[in-house]
Structure formats: C-alpha cells, structure tokens
C-alpha cells in the first residue's frame, strides 16, 4: 500500500472519529435518535464547512481526492480541532514537510550526545529515535527504570515499554492518563511516516500485544508535546515527581532528548542521588 493511500485512509478515519465525538449542543443541534447528544451527521459537517455531502463522504472514505488547504482549514474550524490536530490533518493531506521515506532510525546516539545525557544526572535523561526507539540513556534513567538496559534492542521502544511492560506500568500511578498522552504525542509526529515499515510494524505489534493500545489507537487522539509534571512510584525511592522536558539537538533533528528534572519543593533530587549512590556501576 502506497504512502498516499495510507495517509488518505488515516485522514478519513481521523475526520470520522472527530465528527462522531462532537457535542451536538455546542453546534446548536438537537439530540438525534434515542436522545444521543454526541456525533454530527456527515451532511451537518459538510454544510458547515461549505462542501458537498458527496465530496465529504468520499473524504472520510479515503478516496483518491485532493482537498485544498482552504477546505481542510474550514473543516478544522467546523470540528473545532486543536492546533496539533489541525496540523496533523494538513500533514496527512501533504501540506506539511514530511521526512524522507528512506530515512533509517538511528540505532545509537553519537558520543557527544551520550555525554550530554550523562551530564544531566541526577536527572533521568534518554534519547528517542523518530519511531520512539530508546537509543540512549543515562545512569539516572537506568536506576529509575532498570529494564531499559536488560531488554533486547528490538523491544527498547517507549510505546512498547508503556503498553506492554508491567514493571513500567507499576511505576506510573497515573498510567491511564500518561499512556494516552504519550500515544497522542506519538501520533502527532507520525502522520507523514504512516507507510514506513518501522511504523507499520510497531503499530501492528502493539495492536497484537496490548488491548489497551488497540483501544487508545482507535480514538485517533492527537496532541503536541508540552512540558508537564510526571510522577513515579519507585519500589526503592518511593514517590518521585519530575518536570518532563523535551529537546531536539540542532545537529540531530531526528532525535528527541527527554529530561526529567526534579520538581521544586520535592525530595526527588535527593532520592535520585541516593539511588545513584547505591546503584551498582555499569
């Protein structure tokens, strides 16, 4: 299946999912059969966006049509899409730069970036490839999540960790919220890469191994990354609170660096230092 076909299918599925989640009252529309208050009909969305019902139906069906940017902007306004969702729709239709299809995710990071990660201690830090493979980390991240060093390279992927590793799930008191937030951020980045083999393989594996992932993936949620608080329940250190930050090195634009800074007015920094002091050396 070509990349264009895959993107058209995803665009149609995304628009349908968002249409079915719209609140009718917010659009000054009455409930429909059996008192249902969510979900607009295709003709209702088409009329508000100024397109024909036939054309909009074809768009949701993933047919080979070329929507203009103006039409997609009108649909975004009609559906009240967030900025991240709007950009995602545009990227699926070819109105945003896409990475080269031949790009191969790095298997490891260069030495200078590893030194940068190591210098963040006692803050946990790690690096992600475009497919969210974990391609580098520091000792602080390893004591926070020891499995990262023990797992096979093909399993060392942040989405796989979140959705399939029970040890990681036990670390996260807000696993339901965190897992869906990560997936929404991954999807926001993955639009131009839908037909790439590593993306297809990753999603297929996760669907097969995690019912939670399959349900969350079907929601088509899209969000931009935003720095935020992250909490962990560590079996040795207890409760840990961090600020979650993400950086993109200027010389490695396909790699994202994640750093967890100890939250202010919390014992997290001291607890992480104690964990590092008591941990065995690499």
Q: Characterize the overall form.
A: elongated
Radius of gyration: 21 Å
Structural class: alpha+beta
Q: Report the order of strands and helices.
A: HHHHHHEEHHHHHHHEEEH
CATH class of the largest domain: Alpha Beta
List how many beta strands DSSP finds: 5
Describe the largest sheet: 5 strands, antiparallel
How many domains, in number, for the residues? 2
> What is the mean pLDDT?
92
**Assembly annotation:** single chain
Brief digest:
The chain has 282 residues and is α+β, with helices and mostly antiparallel strands.
List the topology elements.
Layout: H1 3-21, H2 42-49, H3 53-60, H4 69-79, H5 83-92, H6 111-118, E1 125-128, E2 134-137, H7 139-144, H8 147-150, H9 158-164, H10 166-171, H11 175-190, H12 197-209, H13 211-218, E3 228-234, E4 238-247, E5 256-262, H14 268-278
Antiparallel strand pairs: 1-2, 1-5, 3-4, 4-5
InterPro entries: Cro/C1-type_HTH, Lambda_DNA-bd_dom_sf, MLTR_LBD
Pfam families: HTH_31 (PF13560), MLTR_LBD (PF17765)
Protein name: HTH cro/C1-type domain-containing protein
Descriptive account of the structure:
With 282 residues, the protein is α+β, with helices and mostly antiparallel strands. It has two domains: 3-92, lambda repressor-like DNA-binding domains (434 Repressor (Amino-terminal Domain)); 111-278, Beta-Lactamase. Helix content is 48%, strand content 11%. The chain has a five-stranded antiparallel β-sheet with strand order 2-1-5-4-3. A hairpin with a 3-residue loop joins strand 3 and strand 4 (238-247). Helix 2 (42-49) packs across helix 3 and helix 12 packs across helix 13 (211-218). The longest helix has 19 residues, at 3-21. The chain is elongated and about 65 Å long. Mean pLDDT is 92; it is low at 98-102.
């Amino acid at each position: 299946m070509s990349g264009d076909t895959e993107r058209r299918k995803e665009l149609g599925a995304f628009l349908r999912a968002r249409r079915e989640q719209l609140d009718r009252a917010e659009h000054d529309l009455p409930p429909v059969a059996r008192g249902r208050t969510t979900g607009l009909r295709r003709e209702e969305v088409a009329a508000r966006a100024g397109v024909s019902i036939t054309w909009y139906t074809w768009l949701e069906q993933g047919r080979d049509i070329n929507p203009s940017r103006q039409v997609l902007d009108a649909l975004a306004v009609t559906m009240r899409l967030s900025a991240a969702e709007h950009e995602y729709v545009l990227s699926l239709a070819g109105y945003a730069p896409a990475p080269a299809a031949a790009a191969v995710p790095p298997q490891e990071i260069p030495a200078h970036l590893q030194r940068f990660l190591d210098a963040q201690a006692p803050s946990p830090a790690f690096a992600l490839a475009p497919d969210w493979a974990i391609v580098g980390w520091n000792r602080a991240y390893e004591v926070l999540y020891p499995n990262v060093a023990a797992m096979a390279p093909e399993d060392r992927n942040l989405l796989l960790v979140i959705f399939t590793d029970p040890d990681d799930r036990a670390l996260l008191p807000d696993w339901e919220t965190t897992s869906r937030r990560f997936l929404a951020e991954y999807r926001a980045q993955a639009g131009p890469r839908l037909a790439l083999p590593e993306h297809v393989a990753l999603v297929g594996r996760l669907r097969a191994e995690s019912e939670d992932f399959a349900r969350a993936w079907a929601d088509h949620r899209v969000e931009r990354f935003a720095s935020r608080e992250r909490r962990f329940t560590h079996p040795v250190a207890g409760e840990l609170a961090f600020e979650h930050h993400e950086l993109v090195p200027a010389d490695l634009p396909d790699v994202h660096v994640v750093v967890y800074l100890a939250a202010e007015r919390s014992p997290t920094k001291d607890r992480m230092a104690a964990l590092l002091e008591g941990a065995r050396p690499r």
